[in-house]
Amino acid sequence: MKNYPHPIIAREGWPFLAITLALAVAATVWCASWSIPLWIIFVFVLQFFRDPAREIPQQSGAVLSPCDGRVIKVERTQDPYGQRDAILVSVFMNVFNVHSNRSPMDGKIEKIQYFPGKFVNADLDKASTENERNAVVLTTNDGQTVTFVQVAGLIARRILCYVNVGDSLTRGQRYGFIRFGSRVDVYLPLTANVKVSIGDKVSATTTILAQL
C-alpha cells in the first residue's frame, strides 16, 4: 500500500463536503437566513475530515500514536488478538479530533480481525470488547508484536481499513479512518516503556506513546 499523500482534507470526507456545500449554497440562494445552520454543518464536516501532514519521529523503537485524542487507559492486560500479555494504551477521539489512523511502527501485518458489534460510548471500558472493531497485529522489524485496534463509538458507524495481511507498513503511514468519534487501543510488549499517562492529549504520528 502506498503512503497516503496528505491532501489536507481526507478523501473519506469529499462526498459529505460536496453534499453539505451544495445544500448550504442552495439554501443561501433561496433564503439566506435559513442557510446558517447548513453552513455550520458544512464547517463541522470540513473540520472533522481535515487530514494534515505530520512530522514523523525517527527514534529507533518509538511507538507512535495511531490517532489524535486523549489517553483514557494505561494498564497491563491480555491482548486478545496477539494472544499474549501486554500493556494497553487506549486513546479516545472526540468529534473534533483528526480521525485519520496511522501506523505506529514499521513492520509487517501478520493478522487483521474485524468484529461487528455494538456502538456504546467509546470512552467506556466495555467498548474494547463489545463495540464494532478492527484489529491489526503488526510484527515490527526487530520481531516484536504491536497490535492496534480501531474501535467504533457511540456516533461512529464506519470503520475503514485499507491494508491487508502481508502488507508492510512504515511509521506514520495512513492505514485507515473512523467516522465520527471513536477510539484506538494499542497493545504493547510488557517490556515497553510507556511515555504517556491517562489524561494526556496525543497527536497521530507526532506523539510517542512508548519506547520498545
Radius of gyration: 18 Å
Question: Which fold name is given in CATH as the topology of the largest domain?
Answer: Glucose Permease (Domain IIA)
> Could you give the distance between the termini?
25 Å
Which percent range fits the helix content?
Answer: 10-25%
Describe the structure concisely for a colleague:
The chain is about 15% helix and about 40% strand. It has 3 helices and 16 strands.
What can you see in these coordinates?
With 212 residues, the protein is α+β, with helices and mostly antiparallel strands. It has 2 domains: 8-51; 62-211, Glucose Permease (Domain IIA) (Distorted Sandwich). The chain has 3 helices and 16 strands. It has helices spanning 14-30, 36-48, 127-130, and strands at residues 8-9, 50-51, 62-64, 69-79, 84-93, 100-102, 107-115, 133-140, 145-152, 159-161, 168-169, 174-178, 182-188, 193-194, 201-202, 208-211. The chain has an 8-stranded antiparallel β-sheet. α1 (14-30) runs antiparallel to α2 (36-48). The longest helix has 17 residues, at 14-30. The radius of gyration is 18 Å and the shape is elongated.
Architecture blueprint of SSEs:
Elements: E1 8-9, H1 14-30, H2 36-48, E2 50-51, E3 62-64, E4 69-79, E5 84-93, E6 100-102, E7 107-115, H3 127-130, E8 133-140, E9 145-152, E10 159-161, E11 168-169, E12 174-178, E13 182-188, E14 193-194, E15 201-202, E16 208-211
Antiparallel strand pairs: 1-2, 3-16, 4-5, 4-15, 5-13, 6-12, 7-8, 7-11, 8-9, 9-13, 10-12, 14-16
Helix pairs in contact: 1-2
